């Protein structure tokens, strides 16, 4: 089932680019664009989606990653990316330089937890996924002490939802039980929306509902048309580089967009982010390969 993972990941790359590169840059510079205004007024607001589809893109990516993790796929490039994000966060000069880097760290934690869950007997793997939801809920409960951790943990149920969809597709969990556990995942997001101040007013539970529904449709109804779209070189490129693209949108894209007037600045930013993501992707794959050979 690589096709749905590819489509969801590529969609995440596009939605987050629109939200965190184009939309966020426009807000930071108090710029008004017709496309942005129309999209916000006639699509985003009626659907209850904030931040120009950026969070929806992150959630779609986490659903796809959760499914891939439960399927046993390894994502070696998350290790160097997460390490770079943590180092940048710990060093005072670079703290806050990669505002979306937490997504890679969250996904890496999810992959490790999914690997542990896979050690359980097949018929009881859902208990490991339920335990992950409980872990996320406990992290959310720390909102008064570690608000950044709680805000990130609010997105983790999407990763668990992806695992649940795979468990159902593998015949290890009936549809009704999968539905109940996904509802529990949404409940964790809803609780986080109430107790984490950083999430207040953005309607993340609604975005999470859309992401889980879209993920379910993608995995349950994939067919020849989806296969053809996923085979497109551009779609595959976006899906394979999405983990590097997302943290670079703001960290690199915004400074590049400031170099020239709009729209030239945005085009330069897109090209620069794409080139850097390509380089990082290749370097991380080479590093992973060399590490495996050394071991």
Question: What labels describe this entry?
Answer:
13 helices; 295 residues; single chain; mainly alpha
Overview of this structure, please?
It contains 13 helices and no strands. With 295 residues, it is mostly helical. The chain has one domain (2-294).
How large a portion of the residues is in β-strands, by DSSP E?
Answer: under 5%
- How large is the count of helical segments? 13
Number of strands: 0
**Ends distance:** 30 Å
Uncertain runs: none
Structural class: mainly alpha
Shape: globular
Q: How many strands, which pairing sense, and closed or not: the largest β-sheet?
A: none
Q: pLDDT average, as an integer?
A: 93
Radius of gyration: 19 Å
Integer count of domains = 1
Condensed summary:
This protein has 295 residues and is mainly alpha-helical. The chain has 13 helices and no strands.
Topology of helices and strands:
Blueprint: H1 2-28, H2 34-47, H3 54-70, H4 78-90, H5 102-117, H6 125-140, H7 147-153, H8 156-169, H9 175-195, H10 204-220, H11 224-230, H12 233-257, H13 264-294
Helix pairs in contact: 1-3, 1-11, 1-12, 3-5, 3-8, 3-10, 4-5, 5-6, 5-8, 6-7, 6-8, 6-9, 8-9, 8-10, 9-10, 12-13
